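In this section we walk through a basic example: taking a raw amino acid sequence and producing a predicted 3D structure, encoded as discrete structure tokens. The instruction is simple. Fold the sequence below.
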Amino acid sequence: MSSVSNPKARLRAVNARARFRAVVSLAGALAMTGCSSVSSLKNTFFGGGVNTASQAQQQRLSGFIGGVAADEPNAALRGREVLSFGGSAADAAVAIGFMLAATLPSRASLGAGGACLAYRPDKRSPGRGVPEAILFTSQAPASGSPGADRPAAVPMLARGLFALYARYGGKVPFEQLIGPAEQTARLGFPVSRAFANDLAAVGAPLLADPNARAVFGPSGTVLPEGTKLVQPDLGATLAQLRVQGVGDLYTGTLARRLEQVTPLAGGAMTVADLRVAIPQLSAPLTLPSGNDRIAFLPTDGGLATAGAWQVLRGSPANVQGANDRAIALAALWRRGGGDPQALLATQAPAASLPALPASTSFVTLDRDGDAVACSVSMNNLFGTGRVASGTGILLAASPAAVPPPLLSAAIAYNAHVDAFHAEAAGSGQEGAPLATAVALQNALATGSAMAAAVPEPGRANAIVCSRYLPGVESSCRWATDPRGAGLAVGSN
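The resulting token sequence is shown next.
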């Protein structure tokens, strides 16, 4: 019996989402009043085991299932597999995120942070038919890591993915979304071209850390493409998350382990730092586009993407002008420029940004028109370049020590007919916002997910249903940047 058709499974999924809304709202209210119960509330929600759907055997779907696009092929294939068993777009995104922690840890290890836009074309949905942003951006330890030579960020990926699942997933049991990543880490996999390129770019500096060298270069040189990569410690950590729930990484045994070993990696953090690192829900930035609306992440990267979109909307060929506006708005935000929606109506002065870190992106769409677009980063390629001993977790760089990335994603939807139109997410340092805006503009204009390459140094993943979804399933297309080493896959 499918978990989708199981009334008890549906009720448990609804209850999980309701508890998430209640706890986030109450925790936010208590935080404003300075109540000492905030920690216990957060611990209650994030500290126990996962709340899953039915364990019943699921049946593989036939016909249209939707599609995914990601920068690493193994992760994309795992997302498609989830869709093929009736998983939602959020379920597929969660599976991709955990798989990336094993197959592309240079950009998306468990130590990473990021942000997602999630959309469900139903006014009874959590967002009431409007996309929502789930922000799990990197946080510096509150302790400030005194004396640290490689300040590390608090790991946010696992909690961010669980928040996405609690809010928009639930058609596939949560532990089944972690299991394949655990198996991949334990048993090993051939290094993909995407990960081999990152390994080659970093080379010898990464191997200066003995824990990283044991995993990524045991022979003294980084692993080349096709070489088997085995990560037993990471596999054990993922198993712990699967069995005990992601809360264990923030309030349990794994949290205490990180407190013990991160000082040895040069970036100390405490259980208190981990406990208070909570994802945030937020309304997106939005702009009109004909009968549609475009939702952008409410971050500096999302603001930059929206600014680039404004220029391209009026003048599709003005790529340089779009990029200039994107960078100007991001710089204005970082100087404390105020309300981001209001900033879209301003003329930001020309500006520049320091060298920005690498990131990765992925997009998912299910058969019902649910969509998710995510951007994830380690705040540096391979983060701090150090692995927390015994955990397999490559630590991200602290945002207090390096300039943060421009996380960029956007979703086009039609609120009048409650339907998905297109989505895109980008990477490529300061080119990420422009990449996302160009990919989305091209998709909406042509009905093709990647009609033309986005400007360098950007890369993008995109999905479009030119005649909407729910609507005409055959009009849906998905693509990844052809210059990259990712994969776009689905079934229509």
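Looking at the output, two observations stand out. Residues 3-53+62-187+235-283+355-491 form one domain. The chain has 17 helices and 17 strands. In the next section we compare this with other chains.
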